[in-house]
C-alpha cells in the first residue's frame, strides 16, 4: 500500500494587501516588487489564525475525497507559524474539525519544504500500515511574523492554506517517489532569531525586532534554483522518469524569477509550471497545496497526470515528490 491524493482544498483570508498598499508602509514601489519578485498582491489575516485557515482548506479536501472527519486517522500540519508553540497546530485543527479523538496529530517545521516533508511522512505511515486516511496540510499566517518595517522581506510573504487527503491504495496512482534533504550549516540564511529557547521572548528581543523573519535574499535565491533542479531530477530518477514525463511542476512559490530559472534549467515549458505567487505571495509551507488546490479548481489536474512537487526553504531544506494523479 502507498498514499494517493483523493481530495484537495485551499483557503485564503479575504483581506488583500496590494503592492500599492505597501508603498505607503515602506520605501518600495509596485514596479520594484513586480520586477524583482512577480508578487502583485497577497492575502493577510485579520481575526483568523493558522488553524482556522487549515480547517477551511481541510473541509474542501475532505469533501472532494468524500470522507468525514471521524474517518481521519492522522493530521500532519506543515507550518512555521503555529497558533501556539505548544500544543501543535494539528491538535487545534483536530478539535475544530471534529476529527476522532484517537487520531495521531503533529506539526512539521521544515519551512517552505514542510508540505512535501509532511506528505512523505503520511505516505510512509500508510506504507507501514499504521494509518489509512491522512489529512496533510500546509498552513501559514506569515503576516504575524513579518517585520512590516523591513522592505526586504515584507513585500514577499502572505497568508493561506492548502490541504490534501492522502488515502491508502494499492493501485499505480499516488505518490511514486519522494526525496527530502536538509543542511543546517546555512541556518542563518533565513531565521526568526527571537522567541525560542535560545533567545526567549523579552522586551529586548521585541525592541530589536528579533521575533520577525530575517532573510539573506540573494544567497537564498542562488541556492534555490540549484537545489530545485537537482532534487527534482533525483525524485524523477527514483520514479524512473524524466522531466519529459511531467504534466505539471508545482514549485514552491517564492519568486517568479526562481520559477522561470527552474523551467529554463530543467527545460520544462513555462506553461507546465503554475504560478500563484502573483496573487498570494510566498505562503511558505502552504504554497504547494494552495497551488495544487488552485489548479484543481481550474480543472487542470486529470487522472493519470504526472505531477512533480518541489520546494526550497529555510534554512536549508529542499524536497521533491512525484505523483501519478
Ligand atoms: N523595494 C525597493 N528596493 C528594495 C526592496 C524593496 N522592497 N528590497 C530590497 N531593495 C533594494 C535593496 O536594498 C538593494 O539596494 P542597493 O542595491 O542600493 O543595496 C536592491 O534593492 C537589490 O537588493 P537585492 O537583495 O540584491 O535584490 P534581489 O534582486 O536579490 O531580490 C529578493 C530580493 C526578492 C528577496 C530575492 O533575493 C529572492 O527572492 N530571494 C529568494 C527568497 C527565497 O527563495 N526564500 C526561500 C523561501 S522563504 C522561507 O523559507 C520562509
Note down, in words, how this protein is organized.
A 5-stranded mixed sheet has the order 1-7-6-4-5, with helices on both faces. The protein has a 4-stranded mixed sheet with strand order 8-13-12-11, sandwiched between helices. The longest helix is centred in the last third of the chain and has 22 residues. It is globular and about 55 Å long. It folds into 2 domains: 172 residues, 3-Layer(aba) Sandwich (Peroxisomal Thiolase, Chain A, domain 1), CATH 3.40.47; 142 residues, 3-Layer(aba) Sandwich (Peroxisomal Thiolase, Chain A, domain 1), CATH 3.40.47. The two termini are 16 Å apart. By secondary structure, the protein is of the alpha/beta class. The protein binds acetyl coenzyme *A. The site of acetyl coenzyme *A has 24 residues, from helix 2, helix 6, helix 8 and strand 12.
Kindly report the spatial arrangement of strands forming the biggest sheet. 1-7-6-4-5
- Count of DSSP E strands? 13
Question: Structural class of the helices, strands and pairings?
Answer: alpha/beta
Q: Ligands bound here?
A: acetyl coenzyme *A
- The general outline is globular
- Per CATH, the architecture of the largest domain is 3-Layer(aba) Sandwich
Straight-line distance between termini: 16 Å
Reported for the largest beta sheet, the result is: 5 strands, mixed
The level 1 CATH classification of the largest domain is Alpha Beta
Estimate what percentage of residues fall within beta strands: 15-25%
**Mean pLDDT rating:** 96
Amino acid at each position: 500500500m502507498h498514499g494517493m491524493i483523493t481530495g484537495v482544498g485551499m483557503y485564503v483570508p479575504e483581506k488583500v494587501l496590494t503592492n500599492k498598499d505597501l508603498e505607503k508602509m515602506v520605501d518600495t514601489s509596485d514596479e520594484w516588487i513586480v520586477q524583482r519578485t512577480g508578487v502583485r498582491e497577497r492575502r493577510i489575516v485579520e481575526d483568523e489564525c493558522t488553524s482556522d485557515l487549515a480547517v477551511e482548506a481541510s473541509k474542501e479536501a475532505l469533501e472532494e475525497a468524500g470522507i468525514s472527519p471521524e474517518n481521519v486517522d492522522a493530521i500532519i500540519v506543515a507550518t512555521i507559524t503555529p497558533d501556539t508553540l505548544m500544543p501543535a497546530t494539528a491538535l487545534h485543527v483536530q478539535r475544530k474539525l471534529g476529527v476522532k479523538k484517537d487520531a495521531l496529530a503533529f506539526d512539521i517545521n521544515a519551512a517552505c519544504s514542510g508540505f512535501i516533508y509532511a506528505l512523505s511522512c503520511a505516505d510512509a505511515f500508510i506504507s507501514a500500515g499504521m494509518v489509512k486516511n491522512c489529512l496533510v496540510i500546509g498552513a501559514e499566517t506569515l503576516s504575524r511574523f513579518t517585520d512590516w518595517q523591513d522592505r526586504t522581506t515584507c513585500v514577499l510573504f502572505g497568508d493561506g492554506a492548502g490541504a490534501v487527503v492522502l488515502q491508502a491504495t494499492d493501485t499505480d496512482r499516488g505518490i511514486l517517489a519522494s526525496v527530502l534533504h536538509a543542511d543546517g550549516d546555512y541556518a542563518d540564511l533565513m531565521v526568526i532569531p527571537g522567541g525560542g529557547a535560545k533567545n526567549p521572548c523579552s522586551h529586548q528581543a521585541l525592541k530589536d525586532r528579533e521575533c520577525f523573519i530575517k532573510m539573506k535574499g540573494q544567497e537564498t535565491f542562488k541556492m534555490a534554483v540549484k537545489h530545485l533542479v537537482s532534487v527534482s531530477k533525483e525524485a524523477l530518477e527514483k520514479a524512473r522518469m524524466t522531466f519529459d514525463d511531467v504534466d505539471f511542476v508545482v514549485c514552491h512559490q517564492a519568486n517568479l524569477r526562481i520559477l522561470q530559472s527552474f523551467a529554463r534549467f530543467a527545460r520544462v515549458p513555462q506553461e507546465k509550471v503554475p504560478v500563484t505567487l502573483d496573487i498570494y505571495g510566498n505562503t511558505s509551507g502552504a504554497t504547494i497545496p494552495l497551488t495544487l488546490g488552485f489548479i484543481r479548481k481550474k480543472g487542470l489536474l486529470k487522472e493519470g497526470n504526472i505531477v512533480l512537487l518541489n520546494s526550497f526553504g529555510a534554512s536549508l531544506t529542499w524536497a521533491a515528490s512525484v505523483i501519478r494523479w
